[in-house]
Amino acid sequence: MTALDMRMHIYDQLDQGQWESVVTELEAILADDASETLHAGRNTIKKAVIHGQPVIIKHFKNDGMRKKLAYKLRSSKAKRSYEHSQKLIDAGLLAPTPLLWREDWKGAWLHQSFFVSAYHEVAFTAWDLKKDNLPNNEQWVIHLGQQIGKMHNAGLHHQDLTPGNILFVSEGDSFLMYFIDCNRMSFGAIGKDQGMRALVRMGLEGQHIDPYARAYAEERDLDVEWCQNRYRQLLKRHQFKWRLKNKTRPWRRKLGL
What we know:
The protein is built from eight helices and eleven strands. It is α+β, with helices and mostly antiparallel strands. It folds into two domains: 4-118, Phosphorylase Kinase, domain 1 (2-Layer Sandwich), CATH 3.30.200; 122-247, Orthogonal Bundle (Transferase(Phosphotransferase), domain 1), CATH 1.10.510. The strands form three sheets. It has a six-stranded antiparallel beta sheet. Strands 7-9-10 form a three-stranded antiparallel beta sheet, with no helix packed on it. The chain has a two-stranded antiparallel ribbon with strand order 8-11. Helix 5 (137-153) runs parallel beside helix 7, helix 6 (192-199) crosses helix 8 (224-255) and helix 7 crosses helix 8 (224-255). The longest helix is centred in the C-terminal third of the chain and has 32 residues, at 224-255. The chain is globular, with a radius of gyration of 20 Å. The two termini are 33 Å apart.
């Protein structure tokens, strides 16, 4: 039997010795009834409490030769989640503090990986920005446009920028906005059209379009009217794509797509 090669990294500000034992016990923590399952599918996401601190644990399986070959050429989802979260934080944006990553290798192949980050109680997500009864709705729409603009100015392209991956967390009488699920990112200069294609993935429409696109344009020093018009053009395509995706979802699941 091939011996397991466990690779890891622990956040510098944590007690290394204390958290090294946590790294080796992640499977047991995930199996414990005290951990709360938030998602169970190709990957597993659980909430747990470690050393009195609430955390999120993501377990990424790496089944199948196609995946194993892919991870010969790139880092694991766990390692990328950690590193990309730190890049967002370094750029002055918010992401849950990355605490550790772990990779399990069997011979030359990645078997599975784990990512642990700080947990934050979510007040609402970007999905809720479409609701008229959300207090100070336009304020958060504008803030979202500004923060995505700030991300793009820093050369960070979050490739899974969806409403469910934008979390608003209570902070006194206000909220802080966090980006999550950032294992898929690319880096480098982001053109204005590429930026607008990312912006439209929030699906904001109607009265929210102009303040949202304006905030993004002003953050990036782009022409406001062009951004607003381009957003409207791209929104029609985005809405058609999602109608088609939702309509074909049952068939795609049966086919494993």
